[in-house]
């Protein structure tokens, strides 16, 4: 059963315990990086360049989508893999007739989405962390955490 | 008026207000922006009652870490009896502030002149 978070953007974020669906589409790009903060931005730049080149996004969407990839990768590096350089973060981009999806896998134990505090509460507004998921939800059409939270799939309609 | 330029960051004093601006603010430059904001935090802590304006005109990319740094600066400023304002946000950046309800805690102005007029002397 899917849990819905209190975090709301354009889409709400869901969490399910199982594996992501096998029919995300054709795998068009696969990358892997060690859990190192310094590697995130260069990867985001390369991935968004690829997505523009492939026509998945237009140039003016580059920052918005790059932001989603960055937040997802940093969460995987920090919270999933606990900055363990030896643990990789895997990123895959899929394409089908209706949408594209980005899957981000870490090697952590997952997390409970329902326990993630809302960054827009009276208290949360003053927080210096914890806005990443909301930024992802703002720009994506569908955001689902699988495998108890160690796999994120974010999708956008073509 | 002396303007200090370091990389993509320019700093100047307009009267008693320290104005920090960026020549560019793309994703590749985020680290440089963060470094400038962290240094600004040290300035605020070392100068109680300081007046600080950040001009975000050229910032086109701001992650959750960047938003968090700005919230941290605002808190430091309040704690030390200072004044802290933002101006000239691009539409997409302003939208992030609105969605995150940060427009409720930051004083945000359309342009630098309006912001400078709003500082208490």
What would your notes on this structure say?
The complex is a heterodimer of chains A (158) and B (121). Chain A is of the alpha+beta class and 158 residues long. Chain A has a single domain (3-157), classed as Heat Shock Protein 90 (2-Layer Sandwich). Chain A is built from 3 helices and 7 strands. A 7-stranded mixed sheet of chain A has the order 1-2-6-7-5-4-3. In chain A, strand 4 (88-95) and strand 5 (99-105) form a beta hairpin. In chain A, helix 2 (62-80) packs antiparallel against helix 3 (132-139). Chain A is globular, with a radius of gyration of 15 Å. Chain B is α/β, with parallel strands linked by helices. Chain B has a single domain (3-117), classed as Transcription Regulator spoIIAA. A 6-stranded mixed sheet of chain B has the order 1-2-3-4-5-6. In chain B, helix 1 packs parallel to helix 2 (64-79). Chain B is built from 4 helices and 6 strands, in the order E-E-E-H-E-H-E-H-E-H. Chain B has helices at residues 30-46, 64-79, 91-99, 112-117; strands at 3-6, 9-14, 17-22, 51-55, 83-87, 107-109. Classes of the chains: A alpha+beta (158), B alpha/beta (121). Chains A and B meet through helix 1, helix 2 and helix 3 of A and helix 2 and helix 3 of B.
